[in-house]
Amino acid sequence: MSSNTRKLKTSFEHASHLGQIIRTREDTAPSFDGTRIWYRSVGNGGSGNGDIPIVCLNGLGCSTFYFSYLENYFKDKTQVVTWDYRGHGRSEMPRVSKNHTVHSLKQDLKTVLDALEIKKAILVGHSMGAQVMFDFHASYPHRVTAMVSCFGTSGKPMDTFYNFPLSKYAFEVIYMFNHLFPRVSNTIGTLIAKNPLWFQMGGFFKMMKPYLVDKRIMKQYLEHIINVDAIFLSKLTRSLQEHDAESELKKIRVPVLVIGADEDSFTPAWISKKMHRQIPHSELFIVKKGSHVALVEQPELINLRIEKFIRERLKESRSRTSLQNGFKKVAIHAHSR
Hints:
Elements: H1 3-6, E1 9-15, E2 20-30, E3 36-42, E4 54-57, H2 68-74, E5 80-83, H3 102-115, E6 121-126, H4 128-139, E7 144-150, H5 167-180, H6 182-194, H7 198-204, H8 215-225, H9 230-242, H10 246-249, E8 256-261, H11 269-278, E9 283-287, H12 299-336
Parallel strand pairs: 4-5, 4-6, 6-7, 7-8, 8-9
Antiparallel strand pairs: 1-2, 2-3, 3-5
């Protein structure tokens, strides 16, 4: 990572449709083991959700491109934070090789919140980001205002990948291959990226809906993932498979919106429905004709649903807290008498 990347970059961009100035900040911060984590903060806050920042958590092998529509939609309403996991995008590879776990990513999230002096946030996790989000809430519930799970699960994602009962065994084969033949693995990834039919292949394997998604965003994903170290990626995937926060779901007391897609092959919709039943007072939204990357296939629909959830549930949550505080004051006053 260059020295320029480590320097604080603060700029201002115009939201022409509102005629206002949006503050943008990019920087890196050292995580618990010294690994520098890149982050970007956009927006000044507003009345839309009481100035509560939205912090996005990417999927496995992804950078921030899947949150581009969400960032553009919400940045004139509140602060929106995107960031890269260790070993991804503009963040460093782990300085300690063993720190390639969900626990490490959870601590990286805390690093970003601390660097931006964010005490509480609305967390939006896509795919693997949902696992990191639930694990973060289990450790730091006081720093979470609400959560949105987008096409994610609470653990063991390989058990249900493509709804195929043997998918976890197929992963073990890929894991061993990546470790035994890392150069060959990287070469295969490069050849796929250079294949002129890569976009059509993505549709054939049900990774996305070619007729809905912007090809440029999928190209960003492809170019990014082939540059992620194959061994690191397979170790992180194994950590995801060993991680399971399902027992924590029933303990959640903040508002939660679970978003699934009826044609998601990576995280089938029934998983979202199951999590909805396990999380107390959660909301469920299933995107019709959506894939695992519906965030960039039907962004307007998803952004409006998230906005509705934030406006209604956080207002309800604040009202309940005010009422509880009022009762406490009355009780204290009565006791003092």
